[in-house]
Amino acid sequence: MAEGEHTPQTATVAGLLAAAAEGQGGALWRLRGAGRQLDANLVRHLPGTGGAPSTEDAVDVVMVVVAGTGVLTLDGEQSHLSPGFLGLLPRGAVRALLAGPQGLVVLTVHRKRRGMSIAPATTAAVPAEPPVAALAEPPPTCALHLVCAHCHRHAIEVDARYCSGCGTPLTGGPAGGG
């Protein structure tokens, strides 16, 4: 396929749910391909999961409930979720999802985030003494070590506790509680 061409990606929600293992949570489907402009995920939240507030600072997210029930808290306002619910989760808004007793399946769509890249190391001059301000502030925490065990997405925020892609709790570092 030539550069810039795209392969159509189609599926049915019913087919994806039927193919998922019983009790499987997290991303059941996602758009693939380097040339796309959007990210889309079909995510299953198991009964009673979620609830922790988070903030997405990079992108607005459109969410459609396709199965189950739950509660969305968006900047302190609660909405009861059921199939057919359509909502915009604006970037910068504090949000939390809590899946109901049957669980919750949502389709999320947003502008593709920039990929992470690692540049070659550069040599910097080391000052003889650090500035006074540098001594007063703690060193910045790197969230790169926080990677979702389920979907392998890197944490976006230094204090991330849950994966922004699939909602799985992050563990293994200071912010993840492990």
Task: Describe it.
- The structure is a single chain.
- By secondary structure, the protein is mainly beta.
- The chain is built from two helices and seven strands.
- Strands 1, 2, 3, 4, 5, 6 and 7 form a seven-stranded antiparallel beta sheet that branches.
- A hairpin with a 7-residue loop joins strand 1 (26-30) and strand 2.
- The radius of gyration is 19 Å and the shape is globular.
- The model is unreliable at 121-127, 137-144 and 173-178 (pLDDT under 50).
Proportion of residues in extended strands? 25-35%
Radius of gyration: 19 Å
| Main sheet characteristics | 7 strands, antiparallel
Helix content: under 10%
Q: Count every beta strand, where a strand is a DSSP E run of 2 or more residues.
A: 7
User: What count of helical segments does DSSP give?
Assistant: 2
Shape: globular
Measured between the Cα atoms of the first and last residue, the distance is 44 Å
In terms of per-residue confidence, which ranges show pLDDT below 50 for 5 or more consecutive residues?
Answer: 121-127, 137-144, 173-178
Structural class: mainly beta
Overall residue-averaged pLDDT value: 75
Order of helices and strands: HEEEEEEEH
